[in-house]
């Protein structure tokens, strides 16, 4: 069921409802509507269009009404006609009635008549009748044909031909409801309207970014072509002020007059000052649009492919106000990757069409297709046309007829950014695009400019202005209108799935497991953003291009093993973004897709950029390592001697206690060597404290070099050396041997200072099992050793 509501009106139209919009009455039957058409029971009312500078009436818009009773209301009349398949007949009747009625009136000289066109009635015969009626009126009517963007999107070839025919007859063209839908801005350069009618929402709603964007596009076109801007829906002085600010020269609305059967004789009348007429001569083909003397270049297909893709990217930047039309010499050249690109274009642009031999009506979801005869001039061309309000570009190429390898075929081509050339090329292509037929009778309702007002409103032909009985909130004019589609239609289901995949912020990719090297066959826009490459650059290639020098090869092997086994797998791996070589952490989820036989035919991968998470974890890990290092440093400062780097007294005694406890448990032995530097005070007195520090450091170096021993400085010039895990029977002998060797080494190290070291030895359990007992015994023996050494030195001197 299609429902539409005109902003500022409580009228509703329901194309499949069984009741009137109001009152709960039955929908008029087909005979009722047929009777209206057969008896020509419609009449026209006229609403003035004024010059905003001087208030003069420059035109009247013809608005249709049905016979007295329920059908007098245009929304009811046209809804019922659409329901019963009589919309085209009713539309033709309304237009001819408007012209006949205007021709029979005392029509002011030079004042224009605005009439509307329905996309379904663009055949030549009704137009010829209208042209004749206008031409042979007592005062030849200056007719302006109002067209909505939906007319050209539905039947571009017929509409463009009709516009040329009417322009040749002296008629002018107005593009209606501009701003209600982005498509009106997209087709504005193609229709080349003489008048741009701004949708009433632009003057009746609060200004916002959408209105500014529309104003920018419309004023750029008007300045470039001399077209006139007309604002609808002006009901008060505030609306008038906004209309002027938007650049409107003409205005229409209840502020200037309501629709009436008679004209408004009390208002001054004046003709519209028109700009120049657009060229109406159609070109045979886009290549023929190039002016004489255009410098042509030559190239093989690869360069033209890249130029085409670049133009597609330019189009994507212009968004929903852009039109793209391209030729493909044959359907086989519209490859799967091309279909994917063009379907993506169709989702984001205003209109996308492809023309080629044997191309179907919809070669890709959302793409309008057109077959091409073998003898068509286009059969030898390669054309890509991009047209938007602020951008125009066209690749126009002609096949030189080479044989041989497809990629080596040569073309002569020109790349044009001239708007006139691009517009002519687009018109030449669109003139070949066949109409879209409604899927059902009531679908034609949505193409009617009378009923389906873009953005959700009904244009009910009662004239511009609000219904004072309105009790319905108006739609937000900045909300982007979405076309109504059927979700059970298989042609729609794929675009909906694609839109869902495009909406996710996770990268999605699909690889073909049945082909060599497992190439990518689908990527979404998030994957393009994550990888740094466009879809057309990666489709058909393996995804290993995302790897780099620091990618973990073990992780790559794990992924390959999981894929080879046909199982789901998750991995976080370092990838690189193309172009910038920026590394990023990719959390990948893989899952197999199986065919009916259970064979893995594809793999789908979901990519998630977890760089921030991984970097936070790495930073936390680094912080923990730093904390551990700081802790170790603090422990070192607390337990080591800063002069020698050996354990200090406190730590040495604690370590000795631990060794003694282990020795008791294992019935082993601990040996303790107590060292004291002889005559250390003399070193400080004779050589200075720096020399004393050097002596202490040298002793520390010698002690720390002994493998398997724990060394400590316990104060001043006193040191400990502890050996643990010794056999009780050999502890004294080993300690004595070490002391003798150490005595020699220290004498050599300290020779230049003429000092020696006294050493005392104690062992457990011989001298006790406690720290203080061993220290006391070793200290006593050390002093005994010192005394013996001095006695020996004295004897040596006497001798």
TrEMBL record:
It comes from the Bacteria. Residues 438-465, 476-489 have a biased composition (Basic and acidic residues). Residues 567-622 form the PAC domain. PROSITE patterns: EAL, GGDEF, PAC, PAS. Residues 1-24, 432-489 are annotated as: Disordered. Residues 668-798 form the GGDEF domain. Residues 7-17 have a biased composition (Polar residues). InterPro entries: Biofilm_reg_signaling, DICT_dom, EAL_dom, EAL_sf, GGDEF_dom, Nucleotide_cyclase, PAS, PAS-assoc_C. Residues 493-566 form the PAS domain. Residues 26-273 form the EAL domain. This is EAL domain-containing protein. It comes from Nocardioides mangrovicus.
């Amino acid at each position: 069921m299609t429902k539409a509501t005109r902003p500022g009106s409580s009228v509703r139209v329901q194309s499949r409802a069984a009741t009137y919009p109001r009152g709960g009455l039955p929908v008029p039957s087909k005979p009722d509507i047929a009777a209206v058409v057969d008896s020509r029971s419609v009449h026209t009312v006229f609403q003035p269009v004024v010059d905003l500078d001087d208030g003069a009436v420059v035109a009247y818009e013809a608005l249709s009404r049905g016979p007295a009773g329920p059908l007098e209301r245009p929304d009811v009349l046209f809804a019922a006609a659409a329901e019963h398949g009589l919309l085209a007949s009713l539309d033709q009747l309304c237009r001819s009635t408007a012209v006949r009625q205007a021709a029979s009136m005392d029509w002011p000289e030079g004042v224009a008549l605005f009439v509307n066109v329905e996309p379904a009635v663009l055949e030549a015969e009704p137009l010829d009748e209208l042209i004749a009626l206008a031409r042979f009126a007592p005062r030849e009517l200056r007719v302006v044909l109002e067209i909505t963007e939906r007319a050209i999107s539905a039947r571009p070839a017929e509409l463009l031909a009709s516009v040329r025919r009417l322009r040749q007859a002296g008629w002018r063209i107005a593009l209606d409801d501009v701003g209600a839908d982005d498509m009106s801005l997209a087709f504005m350069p193609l229709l080349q309207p003489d008048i741009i009618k701004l949708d009433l929402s632009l003057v009746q709603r609060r200004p916002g970014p959408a209105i500014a964007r529309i104003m920018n596009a419309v004023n750029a076109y008007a300045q470039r072509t001399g077209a006139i801007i007309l604002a609808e829906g002006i009901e008060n002085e505030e609306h008038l002020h906004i209309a002027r600010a938007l650049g409107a020269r003409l205005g229409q609305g209840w502020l200037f007059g309501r629709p009436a059967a008679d004209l408004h004789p009390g208002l001054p009348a004046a003709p519209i000052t028109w700009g120049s007429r657009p060229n109406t001569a159609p070109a045979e083909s886009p290549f023929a649009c190039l002016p004489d003397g255009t410098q042509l270049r030559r190239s093989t297909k690869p360069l033209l492919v890249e130029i085409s893709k670049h133009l597609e990217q330019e189009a994507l930047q212009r968004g929903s106000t852009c039109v793209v039309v391209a030729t493909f010499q044959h359907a086989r050249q519209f490859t799967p990757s091309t279909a994917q690109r063009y379907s993506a274009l169709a989702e984001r642009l205003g209109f996308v069409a492809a023309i080629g031999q044997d191309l179907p009506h919809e070669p890709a979801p959302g793409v309008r297709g057109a077959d091409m005869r073998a003898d068509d001039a286009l059969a030898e061309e390669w054309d890509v046309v991009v047209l938007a309000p602020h951008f125009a570009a066209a690749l126009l190429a002609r096949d030189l007829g080479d044989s041989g390898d497809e990629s080596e075929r040569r073309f002569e081509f020109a790349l044009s950014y001239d708007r006139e050339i691009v517009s002519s090329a687009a018109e030449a292509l669109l003139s070949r695009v066949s109409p879209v037929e409604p899927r059902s009778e009531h679908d034609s309702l949505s193409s009617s400019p009378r009923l389906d007002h873009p953005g959700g409103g009904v244009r009910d032909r009662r004239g511009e202005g609000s219904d004072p009985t309105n009790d319905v909130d108006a739609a937000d004019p900045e909300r982007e209108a979405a076309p109504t589609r059927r979700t059970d239609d298989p042609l729609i289901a794929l675009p909906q799935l694609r839109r869902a995949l495009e909406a996710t912020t996770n990268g999605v990719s699909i690889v073909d497991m049945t082909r060599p090297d497992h190439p990518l066959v689908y990527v979404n826009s998030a994957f393009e953003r994550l990888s740094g490459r466009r879809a057309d650059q990666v489709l058909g290639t393996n995804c290993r291009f995302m790897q780099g020098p620091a990618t973990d090869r073990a992780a790559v092997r794990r992924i390959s093993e999981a894929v080879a086994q046909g199982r789901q797998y998750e991995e976080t791996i370092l990838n690189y973004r193309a172009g910038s070589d920026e590394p990023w952490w990719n959390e990948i989820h893989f899952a197999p897709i199986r065919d009916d036989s259970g064979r893995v035919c594809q793999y789908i991968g979901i990519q998630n950029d977890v760089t921030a998470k991984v970097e936070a974890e790495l930073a936390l890990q680094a912080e923990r390592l730093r904390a551990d290092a700081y802790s170790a440093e603090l422990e070192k400062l607390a337990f080591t001697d800063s002069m020698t780097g050996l354990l200090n007294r406190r730590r040495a005694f604690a370590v000795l206690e631990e060794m003694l406890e282990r020795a008791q448990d294992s019935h082993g032995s601990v040996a303790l060597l107590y060292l004291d530097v002889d005559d250390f005070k003399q070193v400080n007195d004779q050589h200075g404290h720096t020399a004393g520090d050097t002596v202490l450091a040298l002793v520390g170096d010698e002690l720390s070099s002994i493998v398997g021993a724990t060394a400590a400085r316990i104060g001043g010039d006193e040191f400990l050396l502890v050996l643990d895990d010794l056999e009780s029977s050999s502890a004294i002998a080993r300690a004595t041997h070490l002391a003798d060797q150490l005595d020699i080494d220290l004498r050599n190290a300290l020779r230049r200072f003429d000092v020696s070291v006294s050493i005392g030895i104690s062992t457990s359990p011989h001298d006790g099992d406690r720290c203080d007992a061993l220290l006391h015994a070793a200290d006593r023996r050390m002093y005994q050793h010192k005394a013996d050494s001095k006695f020996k030195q004295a004897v040596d001197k006497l001798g």
